[in-house]
Amino acid sequence: MQSLADLEAALQTPNKPFDQWQPQNCGQVPITIDAQGRWFYASSEIKREAMVKLFASVLCKEADSYFLKTPVEKMAITVIDVPFIIVDWRFEETEQGLALCCVDNLQRAWLVSAKQPLLLREFEGVSVPYLQLAHGLAARVSRNVYYQWAEIACSDEQGYYIESLAKRYYLA
Q1: 74 near 23, Cβ under 8 Å?
Q2: DSSP state at residue 23
Q3: pLDDT of 24-64, one tens digit each?
């Protein structure tokens, strides 16, 4: 059984030092991320996953705007809802208990924890769980994953929930 620190280290993608970078704002670039997490350049879908992962690695949200940010440039892009969708999940055993790991549409794994909690937000008129990520980013839980969680959810007086590391995250 691994420790929580080992699991976090294994799942962690290299973080960019966005807070240290103070690049010049270079305006808007015609990149859009639609509500299904698909990336488009000038209305043409970017199909190369490696290219999307590269862009995603320098994506951040400041105030209500999304940017591709490097040490020398900062370019605004359009995001319809959130940039990522949770498409799969699993539980991992740790010394601290079961940890819920979510997999996004770019095949990156994220640990549901106090640092990256599940929060409820409105999407298309329905309350939906979103995984809060670093740098102001979030990933919406797909309908398929939501229904899988609903099948195993526990309930209390507040509603239905799923647990990760002994903390309850409500699904509605």
Answers
A1: yes
A2: P
A3: 888 999 999 999 999 999 999 999 999 999 999 999 999 99
